[in-house]
Structure formats: C-alpha cells, structure tokens
Amino acid sequence: MDHRAVDLRRIDIDQIHPGYFLPTVAGGLIASAAASDVGQHTLANIMLGLGLICWLVLGSRILNRLFIRPPLPTPLVPTLAIEVAPSAVAGLALFARDGGRIDIWVMLVSGYGLLLVIAQIRLLSLYLRLSFAPSFWAFTFSWSAVATIALHWITNDQPRVTASTPT
C-alpha cells in the first residue's frame, strides 16, 4: 500500500474544463429553482448562494485555463458550450425565486449570458469541424437552458403599447 500523502489542494490547471460547472453551479442553481417552486424560500436562497459562489470560483479558474493554457483536447471541445449555461440557469433560478419578475439581478445575469452566447458564435466553425462524440451532450443542456431563459424573457417582459397622438 502506498503511504505517500496525496495533496488534494493541487489540481492541474490543464484538467479543468467547463464540465465542472454542471455538478456544482448547475446543481445549486437548479436546486434553488426547484426549492422556490415548492415554497422552500430559505433553501432556495441557500442553494442560489451555493450556485453563484461556485460559478464565481470555478468560472475564474476555468476562464483562466481557457485563456492562458493550450486548447482543450478535441473530445472536450464541446464542453465549451457549457460556458453559456451558468448565466442561463442563474436567470431561471432568479425568475423562480422572484415569481418571474425581471429585476436588476436578472438583467445583469442575462446581460452576461448574452455576451457568452455572442462569444459562442466565434466557436461555431470549430464546432462544425468536430466529429460526433459522446461529449456532444454538452450542447443539449447548455442550449436548452439558453432557450428556456429566452422564453421566460419573451413571455415575462411584454412591451408596453402606447397610443400615439396625431400631431
């Protein structure tokens, strides 16, 4: 049996990818939305905090890895689509928490989400060159979350209709 100490504090930066968002950030934010839906508001706030803190901590590490290290290995390239998921799921959790009301927090999270969706356009040519692989599941969760938050925006933010007066 090997008695060497294992240093659990050190994670190789090259092992980090956006897939780490799913059990941490998405788990907390989805749990927050679910708790809100069943009336567990304290639990919803705790899970929202968990999801947001994990997003802040992991997001900074993941972006650092994506900016300064070599590109992701080809099988992990689809996980880049997961970058759009945290803001979309956070928006859904905030909508669930506040009864569908659009407030400053929903707008901030959604604005950041829009930036990340636009950034995905740059990656489209990379995605189109990929051969199908098991990691393509990353596209489904991420873009279904984006589509869901877009539908919430469409149905919750009805434009005001004002009658114009002739001059």
Automatic annotation (TrEMBL):
Membrane topology of this protein: Multi-pass membrane protein
Keyword Protein biosynthesis found: no
Superkingdom in the source lineage: Bacteria
Entry keyword set: Membrane, Transmembrane, Transmembrane helix
Molecular function, one GO term: monoatomic cation efflux transmembrane transporter activity
Residues passing through the membrane, by range: 20-36, 42-63, 75-96, 102-124, 136-154
Gene3D superfamilies listed in its UniProt record: Voltage-dependent anion channel
Chief localization: membrane
Location(s), subcellular: Membrane
Pfam families listed in its UniProt record: SLAC1 (PF03595)
Any one cellular-component term (Gene Ontology): plasma membrane
The protein, known as: Tellurite resistance protein TehA-like permease
Organism: Plantactinospora soyae
Highest classification ranks of the organism: Bacteria, Bacillati, Actinomycetota, Actinomycetes, Micromonosporales
